[in-house]
Amino acid sequence: MHGLTAGYALCGSFCTIADSVKQIEKLTKNNINVVPIMSEIVYNTDNRFNKADELKEKVITLTGNQIIHTITGAEPIGPKKLLDILIVSPCTGNTIAKIANGITDSSVTMAVKAHLRNNRPVVLAIATNDALGGSAVNIGKLLNTKNIYFVPFGQDDPIGKNNSLIADFDKTLETIFAAINGEQLQPILIK
């Protein structure tokens, strides 16, 4: 997909960010221009999985692009039609709820809102411990929303975290290709 420009938004499921960074690398190796976007939390927070400055440096080096990390930075995505597709990965339950209910209070949710105004695809790679609990209604709503596509997902620990779902991040590129063609990669539910 040479010539494709993909926004890649990282949200605060800190334990899965490394999986998403691997996908960014895969996209760039497939000649996709990746525009990185980070939630304010990811951009500014050191945690037990990542140091914020190291993560930013790695993402900038991989993509060759500066990171969008503010609402005002994300807003031009819509009117300037900057992206062909937008991937939110990892996509937390909090971000899912905001997208499903039209709440635009972060760089990531603004990027989604701005991008959707152009009727272009958004791919969500969920990673949330409450997907089969409080987030289930919002996931259901987005499954039935035009231009929203999901990286196939399943339970990551049915015994220890019975409400948790996580995307199969290795299916991100496949999901992007399907979404560009207006199709949801199937099966969406995996073991």
Strand proportion, as a percent range, falls in 15-25%
| The CATH top-level class label | Alpha Beta
Domain unit count: 1
- What is the fourth-level CATH superfamily? Flavin prenyltransferase-like
Order of helices and strands: EHEHHHEHHEHEEEH
Task: Describe the sheet with the most strands.
Answer: 7 strands, mixed
What CATH calls the topology is Rossmann fold
Label the structural class: alpha/beta
CATH architecture: 3-Layer(aba) Sandwich
Alpha carbon gap, first and last residue: 29 Å
Kindly describe this structure.
This protein is an alpha/beta fold. The chain has one domain: Rossmann fold. It is 36% helix and 18% strand. The protein contains eight helices and seven strands. Strands 1, 2, 3, 4, 5, 6 and 7 form a seven-stranded mixed sheet that branches. α5 packs across α7. The chain starts with a strand and ends in an 11-residue tail after the last helix.
